[in-house]
């Protein structure tokens, strides 16, 4: 009589009954290394001394982390300027995140059409950790244009896409993001009080699009609309951005219709449904 084969073991993504997310389960050295990498990315490059002082870590500790990342191509060192920068290895890892979803691929034709229709740079972004993460962009042919490379982050309250997504969230979620990220001022037009932001989000909900009136960069405007999934939840935003001279008040409604059309097309292509 043949012995019974042992039951097939199912692969798991984490240990059985693993629900403990307390600090004790973090690998502190790894957490510190990733914090150094994140700060280097935010700064766009830094010397060892500046980075160590910024993070209040010893230069020897920071150097060991950077040296380890350099061996993997995650960071690069510029010997002439004595500065460290994010390397190609980090980009390769980040690009795999973009390939994880069909969102970017599906959005490209609609972004191209939107750019051609408006003659302004078209953008795709999503919310990530209380900020806007820019995923894709189709640049205008004009010499003066906005530029948000894939992977760039922006505060939600001072971004067209950010406000388009915030307007779709419950008030408690908006309040939580404000508490965590603050309402930093970038220009004289930035919305820096919860009351001013709430009024803007209500207007955004009523008209169906968000309008950034030089709230992040002087002289630059942005019009954005949300993209929804099959559960009618906002998963991304589509926008156009350009100089205020090319997006005057009298053109906003016309351009907004083009942005809303692109967002609706992408929603439908993803099998989504507007609320």
TrEMBL record:
Write out the GO biological process terms: negative regulation of DNA-templated transcription
Chain ranges of the IclR-ED domain: 89-272
Pfam name, any one: IclR_C
Ordered alphabetically, the record's keywords are:
DNA-binding, Transcription, Transcription regulation
InterPro entries recorded for this chain? GAF-like_dom_sf (IPR029016), HTH_MetabolicPath_Reg (IPR050707), TransRegBhcR (IPR054844), Tscrpt_reg_IclR_C (IPR014757), Tscrpt_reg_IclR_N (IPR005471), WH-like_DNA-bd_sf (IPR036388), WH_DNA-bd_sf (IPR036390)
Q: Report the domain of life of the source organism.
A: Bacteria
Q: Name one GO molecular function term.
A: DNA binding
Bias class Basic and acidic residues marks the residues at: 1-10
HTH iclR-type domain location = 27-88
Q: Spell out the residue ranges making up region: Disordered.
A: 1-22
Check the record and name the PANTHER family matching this protein. Answer: HELIX-TURN-HELIX TRANSCRIPTIONAL REGULATOR, ICLR FAMILY, HTH-TYPE TRANSCRIPTIONAL REPRESSOR ALLR
Q: What is this protein called?
A: Transcriptional regulator, IclR family
């Amino acid at each position: 009589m043949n012995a019974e084969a042992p039951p097939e073991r199912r692969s798991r993504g984490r240990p059985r009954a693993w629900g403990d997310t307390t600090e004790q389960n973090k690998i502190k050295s790894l957490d510190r290394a990733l914090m150094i990498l994140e700060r280097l990315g935010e700064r766009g490059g830094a010397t060892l001394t500046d980075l160590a002082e910024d993070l209040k870590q010893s230069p020897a500790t920071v150097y060991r982390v950077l040296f380890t990342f350099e061996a993997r191509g995650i960071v690069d060192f510029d010997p002439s300027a004595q500065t460290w920068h994010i390397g190609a290895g980090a980009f390769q890892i980040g690009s795999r995140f973009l390939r994880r979803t069909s969102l970017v691929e599906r959005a490209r034709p609609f972004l191209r059409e939107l750019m051609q229709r408006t003659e302004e740079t078209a953008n795709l972004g999503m919310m990530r950790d209380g900020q806007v993460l820019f995923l894709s962009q189709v640049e205008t042919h004009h010499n003066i244009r906005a530029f948000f490379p894939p992977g760039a982050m922006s505060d939600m309250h001072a971004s067209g896409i950010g406000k388009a997504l915030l307007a779709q969230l419950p008030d408690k979620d908006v309040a939580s993001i404000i508490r965590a990220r603050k309402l930093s001022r970038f220009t004289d037009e930035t919305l820096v009080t919860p009351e001013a932001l709430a009024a803007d989000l209500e207007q955004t909900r009523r008209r169906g699009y968000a309008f950034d009136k030089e709230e992040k960069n002087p002289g630059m405007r942005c019009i954005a609309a949300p993209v929804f999934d099959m559960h009618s939840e906002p998963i991304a935003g589509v926008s156009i951005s350009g100089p205020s001279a090319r997006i005057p008040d009298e053109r906003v409604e016309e351009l907004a219709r083009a942005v809303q059309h692109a967002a609706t097309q992408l929603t439908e292509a993803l099998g989504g449904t507007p609320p």
